[in-house]
Amino acid sequence: MKLKWELVCAIKEIDVEEVIQFDFEKKTFAIYHTPSGYYATAGNCTHESVHLGDGLVIDETIECPAHQGQFHIPTGEAIGMPACINLKTYPIRIKSENIYIGLPN
Questions:
Q1: Is the pTM of this model over 0.90?
Q2: On the chain, which terminus has fewer CB atoms closer than 10 Å, C or N?
Q3: CA dihedral defined by 61, 80, 68, 51, rounded to 10 degrees?
């Protein structure tokens, strides 16, 4: 599948263990900076569609701000109830000190 790479932000705009919301073409994404690198997932929790951009990042885990469901950021795997459906993940590319997300073309 061919991807189009969309600019998210400069790498200096997102600290380690931080998440930001990125909206593009009527879709929302969560962009993370973990100790192991940068990642992207669908932006809403699979439990009740609350935006993960307001969540808490600890190491490689995002905790939903509404009901504390947890996901493993690199894989999107739901690892803490009440979340039981995995998040869709997206590739990230770093180029010229900027973060890009790979989206289906």
A1: yes
A2: N
A3: 60
Please give the C-alpha separations between residue 104 and each of 5, 18, 56, 90, 101, in angstroms, as whole numbers. Answer: 9, 25, 27, 9, 10
Q: Residue 72 contacts by C-beta under 8 Å, 6 or more apart in sequence?
A: 60, 61, 79
* Residue-wise pLDDT tens digits, 19-74: 999 999 999 999 999 999 999 999 999 998 899 999 999 999 999 999 999 999 99
Would you state the structure tokens that stand for residue 85, as one six-digit string?
A: 């459906």
CA distances from 57 to 3, 30, 99 (A): 27, 11, 18
Residue type, 11: I
Tokens, residue 38: 């940068």
Q: Where along the chain do its domains lie? A: 16-94
Question: Under CATH, which architecture does the 16-94 domain have?
Answer: 3-layer Sandwich (2.102)
